[in-house]
C-alpha cells in the first residue's frame, strides 16, 4: 500500500512539474504576445513592414492557438491532479480508519487478555487455598483414622481379655 502511495505521489509531483512548466511557457508566451503586440503597433504607425505584420499576426494566432491548447492541457492536467489527490485522500482516510480499527481491536484484545489473566490468577489462588484445605483435612482424617485404628485395636484387646476372663470365670 505504501508503494502505491509513493508511486501516486511521484506521479502527482511529475504532473505538478509539467503544470508549472506549462504555466511558465504561458507566461513566456504572454510576454512574447505583449511584445508582438507592441511590435505590431509600431509597425502600424510606421507602415513600413506590412508583410512582417501579417507574419506576426499569423505567429500571434499560432501562439494564441498554442496558448489555448496549453490552457486546455493545463486544465486536463489539473483535473488529473485533482483526481489523484482525491484518490490519495480516500486511500489515506481508509488507511487511517483501518489503523484506528486495528488499535481498537488490539485494545479490546489486551483488555480481554488482562481480564483472563486476572481470572486465572484468582482461580490459581483459590486452587492453592483449596489444596491447603484438602491437605489439612487429609491430615485430620489421617489422625482420626489412626486414632480409630488404635481404638479398634484397644477394643479388640479388651474384647479378647473379656473373652479370656469369661472363660476363666
Which key terms come to mind for this protein?
169 residues; mainly alpha; 2 helices; rod-shaped; coiled coil; DEUP1 protein
Describe this structure in words.
The protein has one domain (7-168). It contains two helices and no strands. It has helices spanning 2-46, 50-168. Helix 1 runs antiparallel to helix 2. The mean pLDDT is 86.
* Count of structural domains: 1
Number of strands: 0
What is the string of SSEs from the N terminus onward?
HH
Please tell me the overall pLDDT: 86
**Nearest-angstrom radius of gyration?**
51 Å
Q: Judging from the principal axes of the Cα atoms, what is the shape? A: rod-shaped
Bin the helical content: over 70%
Low-confidence stretches: none
Largest sheet: none
Q: Tell me the β content.
A: under 5%
| Straight-line distance between termini | 110 Å
Subcellular location: Cytoplasm
Coiled coil: 57-126
Keywords: Coiled coil, Cytoplasm
Organism: Nyctibius grandis
Amino acid at each position: 500500500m505504501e508503494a502505491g502511495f509513493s508511486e501516486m505521489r511521484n506521479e502527482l509531483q511529475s504532473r505538478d512539474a509539467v503544470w508549472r512548466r506549462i504555466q511558465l511557457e504561458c507566461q513566456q508566451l504572454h510576454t512574447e504576445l505583449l511584445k508582438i503586440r507592441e511590435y505590431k503597433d509600431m509597425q502600424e504607425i510606421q507602415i513600413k513592414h506590412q508583410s512582417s505584420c501579417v507574419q506576426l499576426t499569423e505567429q500571434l494566432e499560432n501562439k494564441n492557438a498554442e496558448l489555448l491548447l496549453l490552457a486546455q492541457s493545463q486544465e486536463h492536467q489539473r483535473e488529473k491532479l485533482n483526481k489523484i489527490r482525491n484518490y490519495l485522500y480516500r486511500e489515506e482516510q481508509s488507511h487511517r480508519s483501518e489503523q484506528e480499527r486495528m488499535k481498537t481491536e488490539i485494545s479490546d484484545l489486551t483488555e480481554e487478555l488482562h481480564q483472563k489473566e486476572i481470572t486465572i490468577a484468582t482461580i490459581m489462588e483459590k486452587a492453592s487455598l483449596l489444596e491447603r484445605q484438602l491437605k489439612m483435612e487429609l491430615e485430620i482424617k489421617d489422625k482420626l483414622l489412626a486414632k480409630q485404628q488404635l481404638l479398634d485395636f484397644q477394643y479388640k484387646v479388651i474384647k479378647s481379655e473379656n473373652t479370656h476372663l469369661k472363660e476363666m470365670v
